[in-house]
Design brief:
This protein is α/β, with parallel strands linked by helices. Helix content is 20%, strand content 27%. Helix 1 packs parallel to helix 3 (70-77).
C-alpha cells in the first residue's frame, strides 16, 4: 500500500515544510514566487533530497520558467532523475497512473493561464482510468472558496473530472484557503496548499495510503 504525501503552493518556503518518509511525494505547483532560474534550482535541489522514493512535480501559475523557457527547465530537471515532471502528461509510479497539468483559468495573467478554448483542449486530453489527477487549480465548487466567498475553480475541469475522467484522487492547490480533503461522488479531492492566504507555510502535508 503506497504511502503518498501531497503538498502544493510552497512559494519558496519549502525548507519550512517537513516531509514525512513516504513512497511518493507529489507537489501540485507554485513551488516558487516568480519562477526564476534561481528559485526553480533551489526548489528542485530541496525536492530531490526529500525522504520519498519517488517525487512527482507539477508547476503552477507562479512558476514562470516552465512556460517562458521550457528547455531550461528540462535541463535543470535532467540533473534530478528522481523527479518526474508532469505537464499535460502521464507517468506510472509504483503501479499508479498519475496525470498532471499546470494550467488554470486566467488569473491576473500569470504563468500557465488560459482562456476557455485552451482549457477545453487541455482537460479533454486527460485520459480515463487514471488513479491520481494532479492539476494546479481546483475544479469549480470543490475546496476552491476564498475568504471573500468567491469560487475560483474551473467549471470545465469539474465537468471532465466528474463525467468522464473520474480519477480515484484529484490533487490540486492554488486556492490557499481551500486546504483540506473532500469526497464527492466517489472521488477524493485534495487541496494540498502548504501556505495559507498570508503565505505562511502552516498547513501540514496531506498523507494518503492507497490500496
Amino acid at each position: 500500500m503506497p504511502k503518498i504525501v501531497l503538498i502544493s503552493d510552497t512559494h519558496n518556503l519549502h525548507a519550512k515544510v517537513k516531509i514525512p518518509e513516504c513512497d511518493i511525494l507529489v507537489h501540485a505547483g507554485d513551488a516558487t514566487g516568480r519562477g526564476t532560474i534561481q528559485e526553480i534550482t533551489s526548489f528542485l535541489y530541496w525536492f530531490s533530497q526529500q525522504p520519498a522514493k519517488h517525487k512527482v512535480l507539477c508547476l503552477g501559475n507562479h512558476d514562470w520558467l516552465g512556460e517562458k523557457n521550457s528547455s531550461m527547465l528540462k535541463m535543470l530537471l535532467s540533473e534530478y532523475p528522481s523527479i518526474t515532471y508532469l505537464e499535460n502528461s502521464e507517468a506510472t509510479v509504483m503501479g499508479l497512473r498519475i496525470w498532471g497539468s499546470p494550467w488554470t483559468p486566467r488569473f491576473f495573467d500569470w504563468a500557465f493561464n488560459a482562456d476557455p478554448d485552451k482549457l477545453i483542449e487541455v482537460w479533454s486530453s486527460i485520459p480515463e482510468g487514471i488513479d491520481i489527477l494532479v492539476t494546479h487549480g481546483p475544479p469549480f465548487g470543490i475546496l476552491d472558496e476564498t475568504e471573500e466567498g468567491n469560487l475560483i475553480g474551473c467549471k470545465i475541469l469539474l465537468h471532465e473530472v466528474q463525467t468522464r475522467v473520474r480519477p480515484r484522487y484529484h490533487v490540486f492547490g492554488h486556492d490557499h484557503e481551500g486546504y483540506g480533503t473532500k469526497v464527492v461522488e466517489g472521488i477524493t479531492y485534495v487541496n494540498a496548499s502548504s501556505c495559507n492566504r498570508r503565505y505562511q507555510p502552516v498547513n501540514p502535508p496531506i498523507v494518503l495510503e492507497i490500496p
